[in-house]
Amino acid sequence: MNSLGGVGFLVGVLRAVLVLPAAASSAGTKISFRSLDRKHSHHLSGTLCRPEKPPGPVPAIVLVYGTSGMDLRGEFYRASILGAGIASFEVDFKTGVYSGALARPKLDTFLPMAFAALKELRKLPSIDPRRIGIMGFSVGGHIGLRTVMESNLKQWMGAEKGFVV
């Protein structure tokens, strides 16, 4: 790679790391909700960011983090998600539930939390209730995959549809 190509590449990386997250850091709306699990009905929260001036209800993506909790990955993806006309709902499944990796509960604990986030978004008139997906990082990815299993859908959603796949 010649030096001018290397400089161009470096400028592109810096723009992606420094400019996109700054443009995507618009304040969102904090939403509180409870897990669907009646035995362990944790108080949860998430931050909903919507695209600016949408013509009507928009699709949404629930972002679920890994064991370490919320981090900069959501901020990194938010600009692209909002730019595509999709709302992002970054959920915090760690605060008030566990303190660290060794104290993290079993993964099944998070399924009723994910489905609770889905149900909470479906209540909002600014969100299209038929177009809500889920995206996760690390353990959050595992949770996202588990939300499409028929047994989990039936247990936590009954006859209601789950996340869009």
Per DSSP E runs of 2 or more residues, the count of β-strands stands at 5
User: How much of the polypeptide forms β-strand, as a percent range?
Assistant: 15-25%
- Lateral arrangement of strands in the main beta sheet: 1-2-4-3-5
Task: Provide the succession of SSEs.
Answer: HEEEHEHEHH
Oligomeric state of shown chains: single chain
State the domain count.
1
CATH class: Alpha Beta
Number of helices: 5
CATH fold category name: Rossmann fold
User: Span between N and C termini?
Assistant: 40 Å
Low-confidence stretches: 1-25
Outline the biggest β-sheet.
Answer: 5 strands, mixed
Helix content: 25-40%
Can you give me a brief rundown of this structure?
By secondary structure, the protein is of the alpha/beta class.
